[in-house]
Amino acid sequence: IVMRFGVNDNTTSIEYKVAVKLNEKLMELSGGQLKFDIYPDGQLGNAKEMVNQVMMGLLDAYQEPLGGLNQQIPELSILEMPYIVKDFDHLKRIVKSEWGKSILDRLEKNHNIKILDMTLFGIRQTSSNRPLRSMADYKGLRIRVPASRGLRDWAEAMGGRPTAIAFAEVYLALKTNTVDAQENPLPTIYSMKFYEAQKAIAIDNHLVQDKSILFSFKRWNSLSEKQQGWLKEAAAVASAESVKLVTEQSESLIKFFKEQGLEITYPDTAPMREAMKPYYEKFEAEKNIQGLTEKLMKM
User: Fold this and answer.
1) Residue 64 DSSP code
2) How far is the first Cα of the chain from the last one, in angstroms, to the nearest whole number?
3) 200 within 8 A of 4, measured Cβ to Cβ
4) Residues near 198 by Cβ (< 8 Å), separated by ≥ 6?
């Protein structure tokens, strides 16, 4: 059985390497009975298009942050609200909670999405064309953010001007000064060469983000119990690989970026966390989920 795995990023990215690791382990476990053909560089479409393809059963697998599925389940936007999730283990605890289980159940039943496992995308940091030494330095900054409610709110809370630009167009937008800054995990800033168009990186740790392995629930149900077991085991190996790669790369990249002439700063995040509180309250009121932010933060 040959399945299709769509990847948004290029072949040097952790996202791609994780997909390859999953496929290698799956072929080993299944003795070649199950395998993926992997399509990197957004060959099969952008993030939104590939999520839709999984939902329609046209694509077997794709990696997307769980919070990015807020078009399907609006309250998932809460996972993209900066400073709620402390680390990857905390995020896993949230997903294994009663709230998390209800979300996964709705994804399967209503949207044909099975979450095989969660991989670590990284901790999002801010690169810019000027050093950001404190929250005050973010004021007026045109910050490229993805189509994410939480990240848009964060950029606004920092005093910046959130600007939505497609991922594939970010490098050019930075080069041409269409935007002043962007935010992504360090390995992504490296693999997409965003550092070439920036002068500084602020380690503000504003969002711990996963890349969940979305799998067609229709395809899942067509597989035998043994085949499903192989997939789950391969996905667990891919999850561990993502943590290993992100940790190794993040530690070495600080040194690399300094060698490239970028200034690395560590702004105090306490005022940033405080600035986010009104946005948490507004979001909860809109979705009628009062108290959920505090509940998730305490898990």
Assistant:
1) E
2) 40
3) no
4) 127, 128, 129, 174, 181, 182, 262
Each residue's pLDDT tens digit, 29-58: 999 999 999 999 999 999 999 999 999 999
Q: Confirm if 233 and 25 have CB atoms less than 8 A apart.
A: yes
Question: Which tokens belong to 167?
Answer: 């991922």
Find the range with the poorest average confidence among 11-15, 176-180, 203-207, 208-212: 11-15
Contact 4, 43 (CB under 8 A): no
Instruction: Give me 273's structure tokens.
Output: 């966390």
> Computed from CA positions of residues 229, 89, 280, 158, in that sequence, does the dihedral angle turn out positive or negative?
negative
Tell me whether residue 19 is exposed, middle or buried, using C-beta atoms within 10 angstroms of its C-beta: 0 to 12, 13 to 18, 19 or more. buried
Query: Helices 98-111 and 88-96 sit at what angle, rounded to 10 degrees?
Result: 70
DSSP state of 134: S
Q: With the CA atoms of 160, 165, 168 and 170 taken in that order, what torsion angle do they form, in degrees rounded to the nearest 10?
A: -30
Q: Which amino acid is at 215?
A: F
**Alpha helical stretches, state H, 120-268:** 149-157, 170-175, 186-191, 217-222, 225-259
pTM, full prediction: 0.89
- Residue 148: the pLDDT is 86
CA gap 44, 69 in Å, rounded? 18
Helix (H, G, I), strand (E, B) or coil at 292: helix
